Input
Amino acid sequence: MTTSDKWIVQLTIDQGVAHGIIHWVFSPGSRNAPLALSADLHPAIETFVIHDERSAGFFALGLAEKTGKPVALCCTSGSALANYLPAVTEAYYRSIPLWIISADRPSAWTDQGDGQTLRQQHLFQGFVHRFVHLEDCSVMEDYLWPYQRETALMMHALVHEGPVHLNLGLSEPLYQTTEKIQHFHRSISIHRNHEPNPKTIEELAALMRGKKILVVCGQMAEHAGLLEALEQFATLPNVAVLTENISNLPSEFFNACIDRSLNALPESTIEHYQPEVLLSLGGPIVSKRIKAWLRKVNLLAHVRIGLAFTEMDTYQQLTHSMVCEPAAFFRKLYEAGIEKTSFDYRSKWKQIDYLTKDKFNQFKVSSAHLTDFHGYQSFFSWVPEGTVIHLANSSVIRYAQLFDPIKGCTYFANRGTSGIDGSMSTALGYASQDDRLNVLIIGDISFLYDSNALQLKALAPRLKILLINNHGGGIFRIIDGAKDAAQGPKYLEAAHPHNGSFFRIQGYLYLCIMMQYVEIFYLYQGWLYLILLSLLEVVLGIDNIIFISIVTNKLKLEHLKTKARNLGLSLALLIRFILLGLLSFIVHILNPIYEPWFGDFNYKDLVLLLGGLFLIYKSTKELRQGMTKQSKQNQNTHLSFEKIIFQIVLVDFVFSFDSVISAIGMTNGMESELNANPIALVYLSVLI
Output
């Protein structure tokens, strides 16, 4: 096998392959050419080439999320490495295994005015779990053992803790190759027991027994074993579990929308919902409200469970940290028995969850204007089961917490540092190795930050992007203080005129829904209602005319028949206008006149109810008369002019009432419902 003639490059490749690192993301350069050439020629390695280092870093992060294995990220010397920092910090705070490999000039040339040379060593100090520098040298014997040892320990930290950084000082020439004759890999395994200590479990069980226990779950990858253990634990009456969609713990046993539940807590009995013991696990929580609320609650104990960030004290009351697998912890704690209580804490929280879910489903937003909420509501109503949903930060991640997790869907977001950069690149990295439908929901500012990622479309063709474009950071329009700042649009919202049309440049099918299109839709909807209403008035008008013709035939004299017809048709039009005026007044009186168990009852409801009853009565009577044979004597009876006019007036009122009630019922929900009725009456006046 052909490879670089530099043995520290061969060592790097061997260590990566030996520890299962098969995905390597390269950003082009000269100094890292020996690594790129060797990786490309290795049959076990798959490479990706991404020019923009910042985008490449987040792409590698998404790739590692999907595969669950470390990903190598390699760049040339100089400022290229600094562009990895945003992705490295995100990986650090989420324990994602990124192996950052930076090519460098020999250490002697640092700070000596040589091109593309800066202090690369320890550049990511504080955000990587291990740093190793290898210096290019021809004398292998003196350095092989320490270099193998240090890189082997680095590999262990990478697999079990998170990002690490390897810096290689490479001297020229850079492009020579040789046939590989020696393998340099070495492994060192450090074994730790991640099972909880039985004695500690018993001590915690004694502390929690009979207490109200609240479990708060932050961001996590899917974990079937943890879900099963937590569902079992949540069956205890003194346990309530709060999750977010990025917790990836979908269960009816849990409250999945934290802010939605907190908003509904009754102030008069809020102490019933306050926990005595808090158990927290996973990464950061999106909800600011739960953090502020729990910091004010006087807790008996706060126990953090997990292998990473064991000293994280988010709620300022940490008393215990269990460095173990959360699934094992909850199984052991359940077996220890902690439910001795008469208070059903679990049901209290679930009742709030069901109540808010019902109210949320009844929540309506005006259809006259296109809003962010319309976009999210439509998406979460129609997204197929099994979709991978990627959420950008700022307002997107917060809107998403209002909606219950979709069955079978997996949620991802860069919540380690919660930055708005890199969301699109991360989603592309994940989707590049996933055959399911992947959808990214992203705001316009996040989109503009990461627009270079659009060049990577060919690597993830199944990724779909939903862009919520407010032409600036819309979240600042609802934040107290920011929304009133005179400089808000320029410095906070960063207002801009751009849309997503340059999707097309990168080969994307670009579809746009804008406010103008919504207005056109409602304009066409209004015309559709007008056409349907006109057809209805034609039918009712013809019905009215036929009745008048039939009843006036019972007059003996022809001139009286003509006079009665003209008078009847005129009265029909007049009565319709009178009723319309009265109904317009009644319909607009929306104050409740009665409040039965099913909700408010107003004058509009009364009119529509009476109209409905009348229509039922009228239909039944007409059917009965149509099926009953009239005697010949009744057919030949002549009525007086006054009686005929009285019947015409009565029936005109009936048909007019029918016409106007039908018009109101058909246009119910349109803002211009009463404006449609006069237009329909113009049609009617022409017909009669």
User: Anything to note?
Assistant: DSSP finds 22 helices and 17 strands in the chain. Confidence is low (pLDDT under 50) at residues 516-523, 630-636, 669-688.
